Amino acid sequence: MSIATKVNSELTSFVTQGDIFEDVEMVESVQREENFLTVSRICFPFVMVLTQDCDLVQDQKVRPDLVKAKNQDKLLFSVLVSPLYNVEHFRAGEHLSALERGMEKINSKKLRSIKNNEIPRYHYLEFAEDVQLPNSVIDFKHYFSINLDQLVRTKTTKCRGAVAELFREDIAHRFASYLSRIALPDPSDTLPPSPA
Amino acid sequence: MQPNEPIFDPEYVTSKTDATSPREEPNQSTDSVGVQLTKEAETYKQGKPYRIVTRARIVE
């Protein structure tokens, strides 16, 4: 049985771990061809901040007044976030359909395991009815960095809530575990030849 | 701004959600920075991630 993820609706003015932002854009590529610049961005309906809270606090203590700061040792270049996918789209394997990516359809048995957070790759978030967010899945293969200033500027307008402490720490811990897993070679896995 | 820093000519800013089919004319709503979105961007309403491609001429 899945446990409802507690979300704090009373937000601080700082960006914190567990904050859920809406309409966050990731720069996919920037290409210059002669006098034209092409910028491709992917807009994610919801993302959650995964960067360690203490790092965020230390950065935002000095960020407002860099002139007075003794040094900029604690400043971050970016913040790590992970998209939240609507569980219904995810189950149907259609959560990335607008990006022309077909994803695995999830059968009932696997969905049950995902909802119980038994599969290391995924984290299921079930929200209480008073939280205006769809029940979602985080895929730990999907994450990107975003400029912290951008999140600070949009904190009051785009932050929809913050996952409560214990729950966010559970997510961060599972994410760290997933990234630090030991990748053992499978002899049957061969990569396609590199493009010329 | 530095004197030789490239700037964007807004008349040439277009937007698409499909990078594989460039040059399509945008035909939908306008986002906060005045870039038009194509129909595919409407998938946002379904809560799915979508792509925006902006092409701009650099004015040296």
Overall mean pLDDT of chain A: 90
In DSSP terms (H or I, runs of 4 or more residues), the helix count of chain B works out at 0
Mind summarizing the main beta sheet of chain B?
Answer: 2 strands, antiparallel
Give me the strand/helix succession of chain A: EEEEHEEHHEEEHHEH
The global form of chain A is globular
Q: Give the low-pLDDT segments of chain B.
A: 1-45
Structural class of chain B: mainly beta
Percent of residues in β-strands of chain A? 25-35%
The chain-level mean pLDDT of chain B equals 52
Provide the helix percentage of chain B.
under 10%
| Low-confidence blocks of residues of chain A | none
Sequence of strands across the biggest β-sheet of chain B: 1-2
The first-to-last residue Cα distance of chain A is 50 Å
Main interface: chain pair and counts:
A-B, 28 and 25 residues
Spatial strand arrangement across the major sheet of chain A: 2-10-3-4-5-9
Rounded Rg of chain B: 13 Å
The backbone outline of chain B, from C-alpha atoms, is elongated
- Radius of gyration of chain A over all CA atoms, rounded: 19 Å
Order of helices and strands of chain B: EE
How many angstroms does the end-to-end distance of chain B come to? 12 Å
